[in-house]
Automatic annotation (TrEMBL):
Domain Disease resistance protein winged helix: 43-114
Keywords attached to this entry: ATP-binding, Leucine-rich repeat, Nucleotide-binding, Plant defense, Repeat
Biological process according to GO: defense response to other organism
Domain Disease resistance R13L4/SHOC-2-like LRR stretches: 160-486
Gene Ontology terms, MF aspect: ATP binding
Family (UniProt): Belongs to the disease resistance NB-LRR family.
Descriptive protein name: DH200=94 genomic scaffold, scaffold_5393
Length: 535
């Protein structure tokens, strides 16, 4: 635990040299494979939240992950990450309630060291501000907030294995990238152009035969050309937050693809709408896929094809019709490696028909999101012993459905989000239910008036947020029973309830029920973002 006990020294008490030596030794003492993984993090800007799923993919694409018999690269990469975390060389920045690592980062002091070490070894180079020449013989290039005209002369870039851009790269146009790729790196494996000012993909990209990782998220690219099929070694294709809605059939030539993610989401004001991409006949040929994000399932044929992707760990499907529910369950019964499953109906009023004699046994599933009407919660959901997060959205479960009671028996459920999920006026969390729940969100339950929490219900709840439940007439009853609660939030609620919370008398019963909660928050949705006020 390198940084523990060094708080005052890091603040400048004269022992920085000692700490630096310890950190240098810790970095030098790392096995070769871990050293490369750590040094690669030097490409990220200071305090940048490093997406865990992204960095694992880049490590794999760059060949930092050593093969082990009987294990897949993703699991080995995660083990490397956790080992670096255990050595206090990487910090966890964000972890979901169910234990999933979301973002990580570096301590500023350590970042300075690995940036310096990476530069010494020509491992990475960082271009910031104005640049007159490219670095020589560097393997990994990061471009941060570049200004001015990019330098010419690309012969020094032939050793490049990765290029990543950060910030608003106005100078990184399609025209410039064409010249850059034409004259420089032929052995590029990672090309991350997220948020670059691109209207189209330079044709030179499709000549990068060794390319394994391509991220065009947040660009203005609208079309993926047929020449994508030339990238025979591509393993990761990330196309988030673009207007791309179709992929060419040539995608099916990319038999090494591990991750194919396309789509964009809207915000709270549009009820978390999601846009995916139109399905491809023959998608089942991509048998190496571990992540398939936001595919529109237009009929039973595509649903059956998905059942062939037995390596899938994350699956998000959109536009599911009621009549395809049974076929989907058959396919899911074959996807025994699934960890995360997201299902969206074709339209708001469409029912998700997921209750049949076919019951998928998804023993590894940790996250499940169902968006669409439900006549009841499918029985197979209650058998998900590993389930850590459950999201029910637009379910409109009737008041006589015992959904809350049933869900309370899930042994490892840590996070529950109910968004327009229940039609009743009351919600009661009964004694003994939700033994491991840490986070609870109630969102836009239009008829909800009262919430009650019995003793010994949700004994580990730490965060409780209520959003857009505008008929609620008072504070949830029994909040005093939630002794571990650290945060209570009221967002976009009825003004009378907000006034009551803001003006509680210190002697009132309501005040006594929430006085043990460290953070009580009021939130308003203004100009597309939440404005929070802590009481």
């Amino acid at each position: 635990m390198i940084f523990r006990g060094f708080g005052s020294e890091i603040d400048g008490s004269g022992k920085l040299d000692r700490i630096r030596k310890i950190l240098l030794f810790s970095c030098s003492d790392l096995p070769h494979h871990l050293k490369n993984c750590l040094l690669y993090l030097s490409i990220y800007p200071e305090d940048y939240p490093i997406d865990v799923q992204d960095i694992l993919g880049k490590w794999i694409a760059l060949g930092f992950i050593e093969e082990e018999e009987g294990m897949i690269a993703t699991d080995i990469a995660m083990r490397y990450l956790k080992e670096l975390i255990n050595r206090s060389l990487i910090q966890v920045k964000e972890m979901w309630a169910d234990g999933k690592l979301v973002n990580c980062g570096l301590h500023d002091f350590l970042r300075e060291i690995i940036v310096s070490k990476s530069k010494e070894q020509s491992f990475t180079a960082i271009i910031t501000g104005y640049c007159t020449r490219w670095p020589d013989k560097v393997r990994h290039l990061a471009i941060h907030n570049f200004t001015g005209n990019p330098p010419q002369g690309f012969s020094s870039l032939k050793c490049l294995r990765s290029v990543e851009t950060f910030g608003n790269e106005d100078s990184l146009t399609t025209s410039f990238l064409s010249k850059f790729l034409c004259g420089g790196p032929k052995f590029l494996k990672v090309l991350n152009l997220a948020s670059a000012e691109l209207d189209s993909i330079p044709k030179e990209v499709f000549k990068l035969f060794h390319l394994e990782y391509l991220d065009l998220s947040g660009t203005r690219v609208k079309i993926i050309p047929k020449s994508i099929g030339q990238l025979q070694n591509l393993e990761f294709l990330i196309l988030l937050e673009t207007t791309i809605t179709e992929l060419p059939v040539e995608i099916l030539k990319l038999r090494k693809l591990r991750s194919l993610v396309v789509g964009r989401a809207d915000d709270y004001s549009n009820n978390f709408a999601l846009w995916g991409f139109k399905s491809l006949d023959g998608i089942g040929k991509l048998t190496s896929l571990e992540i398939l994000g936001n595919i529109e399932v237009d009929g039973g044929k595509v649903v059956r094809e998905i059942g062939k992707l037995v390596q899938l760990r994350q699956l998000s499907i959109t536009k599911l019709r009621r009549e395809d529910g049974k076929e989907l369950l058959y396919s899911l019964s074959r996807l025994t490696n699934l960890r995360e499953l997201y299902i969206y109906s074709i339209k708001e009023e469409e029912t998700l028909d997921l209750q049949h004699s076919v019951s998928p046994r998804l023993g590894f599933l940790t996250r499940l999101s169902l968006t669409g009407r439900l006549e009841r919660v499918p029985e197979w959901v209650m058998s998900l012993q590993s389930l850590g997060t459950l999201i029910l959205q637009n379910s409109e479960l009737s008041e006589d459905e015992n959904a809350i009671d049933c869900l309370g028996h899930l042994p490892n459920l840590a996070a529950l989000i109910l968004s327009r999920a229940c039609e009743g006026e009351t919600l009661c969390f009964k004694a003994g239910g939700f033994p491991k729940l840490k986070e609870l969100d109630l969102v836009q339950l239009k008829r909800l008036k009262w919430v009650s929490v019995e003793e010994e219900s949700m004994p580990n709840l730490q965060r409780f947020a209520i959003l857009g439940c505008k008929l609620m007439e008072g504070l949830p009853l029994g909040l005093q029973n939630l002794t571990e609660l650290k945060f209570l939030g009221f967002y976009d609620m009825f003004d009378d309830l907000i006034d009551k919370v803001q003006n509680l008398d210190n002697q009132s019963d309501d005040y006594q029920t929430i006085s043990h909660i460290p953070q009580v928050c009021i939130g308003h949705w203004i100009n597309g973002e939440w404005k929070e006020e802590f009481l």
